[in-house]
Fold each of these.
Amino acid sequence: MIDTAHLYRTYAHVKESIRGYSGEVLIASKTHAADAAGARKHVETALREMGIERLDVLLLHGGRVGGPFTERAEVFEELCRMREEGIARTIGISSHLISVIREAAGNPDIDVIHPLVNRTGMGILDGSAREMADAVALAASAGKGVYAMKALAGGNLISSARESISWVMALEGVHSLALGMLSEAEIKANVELAGSGSAPDKVWEKLEKGTRRLIIMRKFCSGCGACLEVCKDGALSMVEGAASVDRSACVLCGYCGAACPDFIIRVA
């Protein structure tokens, strides 16, 4: 299963990765469009650029949207139409909010949910990790497919990767999880961990002690300044309306990542 989105601009990479592959591939994508026409255009772009005929999962890219089924009702109706047309096998929503996951659990048109959940609750906007876990279990019991995101909180939990990944995989109702990976070693270690529940200590100790750096996805920064308020080391500043980091001053505490309402600051 490959998780992507219109925002990620990775369709060309996905197309190359599945070229010549004979095994089963499930592709999930998301649209952040504000209207039906935009959503359809996003899906048409996805199909064209990946060279496929349909998406296995099509999500409303909810993120921090508090009321996606009302605020983006037009978009969700278009997703339902595209499922009827067969260009999306299943539809659903991604969200960082417990309230949205609970609402999705009771929505008969939702097939799949993609919730933010990790053992510390980092990035969850309206409650705790335990509360999100309960919402996930509720959705799964209602027959929704669940694949989790942010098990490592955007890289902030890399030093406890095994514990953090295992915690999410053990949650009631979690069927799968999407993990960002930066190397072949990480891919192999994660596959082994997911498959057998364990992996060689020597491999993981190296991965968990790997060099990390603060990454700010500046093009998605809203310029709210919340990260600057929590940085006690003076490592962050606003440059041309977006947060910027002075790596020589950054101690990788990760507090800015937890404070960022847009979840665009990662330690990786």
Amino acid sequence: MGKNEKTPITVNDIEYNVEDMTETQKAYLNHVQDLDRKMGNAQFNLDQLSIGRQKFVELLAESLENPEEVEEAEVVN
């Protein structure tokens, strides 16, 4: 961006320029952006955990249905 260009953001359907904000408002914005990143990371981790859990449920169900096919070497702790 050039020196005269401003950075717009939208809050509650109203557009504001970051450069026109007070230092306190910029701090609030930084917190919001950081929390958005953390929430995205938490959702990514939750997705991985959910899929992993589902796979272990499938493995458990399979081993209960066919116990003779499951070997001790397959057990993961």
Amino acid sequence: MAKSKKEIINDIDNHLQKSGKRYYSDFYIGITNDIERRLFTEHNVNKETMWWIYRTANSKAVAQEIEEYYLEKGMQGNTGGGTDDSCIVYCYAVGPTTYDH
């Protein structure tokens, strides 16, 4: 179910508190239209052992606003990615086995 910008930021912020990490730069933020492909295959995030979260935004514009919000705070990632239907915002703790592309 799609969530608002405020709801998604609250969800991510609450989940960040449980990560054990101290800095925004320890995380990667992005948007996608296919969470399985992007998060677990292309970024190589382990579903079972790694810290990650994703939420579906109301639109790509909202997803991009959330992505930019966290990039400004210092998370890794880039703007301009995704396709017209990229409404899923994802975040993960960067580790030795993840790929930031």
